[in-house]
Amino acid sequence: MDAWVDLREPGKTDNLNDSISYVDLYNIVKEVAEGPGFELLESVAHLIATKTLQKFTRISTVRVKLMKPHVSVPGPVDCLGIEIFRFQKVDV
């Protein structure tokens, strides 16, 4: 997962409270991955992105990329996957 957030303040202060902890982001991914199963990678990625944007309103954009190894397709393929972008809703 990649997250877009303005990091000027934590860059100046060197204070984790001004940033977003990688551990917190990891925990969202872990919770979704270890939770109830899904049929589609798209559903997993969407839930990760949604939970991330809901928890961290300072994140403007999130990219979730998931790969599935050992897929049942003909041909020499190591893995297949999806990549989604989701954006923080902005009230206008």
Topology record:
Layout: E1 2-4, H1 8-13, H2 22-34, H3 41-55, E2 61-69, E3 79-87
Antiparallel strand pairs: 1-2, 2-3
What does this protein look like?
By secondary structure, the protein is of the alpha+beta class. The chain contains three helices and three strands, in the order E-H-H-H-E-E. The protein has a three-stranded antiparallel sheet, covered by helices on one side. Helix 2 runs antiparallel to helix 3 (41-55). The longest helix is centred in the middle third of the chain and has 15 residues, at 41-55. The protein starts with a strand and ends in a 5-residue tail after the last strand. 11% of the residues are buried. The model has no long low-confidence stretch (mean pLDDT 94).
Short description:
The protein is an alpha+beta fold.
